[in-house]
Amino acid sequence: MRLLRAVLPHAITALAAVALTLGAQRFLSSPAPPAPQPTAPAGLITPTPSPTVGVAPTAGAAPSPQPTDAPLAAAVTRQEVIDLRVQDDRLWAAIYLMRALNHLADAEAALRMNDFARVEQILTTIDDALEQAYARAADADRDPIVQIRRDVGIIREDLYLRPEGMDARLARARQAIMTLIEAPR
């Protein structure tokens, strides 16, 4: 069970990275649909230009450039890449929050065994995971993450001074992280 808890965050991270990579490859490698060519109505005949005498084009002559929608397509692609990066950051923030949640469960188990040194070490690890989540989180989620980090810091400071009620405080921190993960985006 402990091995599963240790491997689970890494497995989730790997799966998310593979899914995002495959999605980006599929999105970026799909060809753009061809632009519709203007056609004349069925009843109208368009005149063709009459041939003129002149120099015949050589094989090395470059074809004339045709107008394309490249600037618009590039802008759309840039926006889609930005959107993918935002989604990637949200996913990483959720992964780091899940990691903090997993560490909180470990801290609660260590607290039940009265292993305060281990609890303190795990609380430091939780703070590190929350710091990484803060770096990737959306602006709206940053303030709650800061508050949770503050609460975890206070719990760590009070661990040896006031250990009573510590399990309830850890449960509140766990609930705050779960609420943040489950918040609609």
From TrEMBL:
Residues 1-16 form the signal peptide. Keywords: Signal. It comes from the Bacteria. Residues 30-69 are annotated as: Disordered. This is Uncharacterized protein.
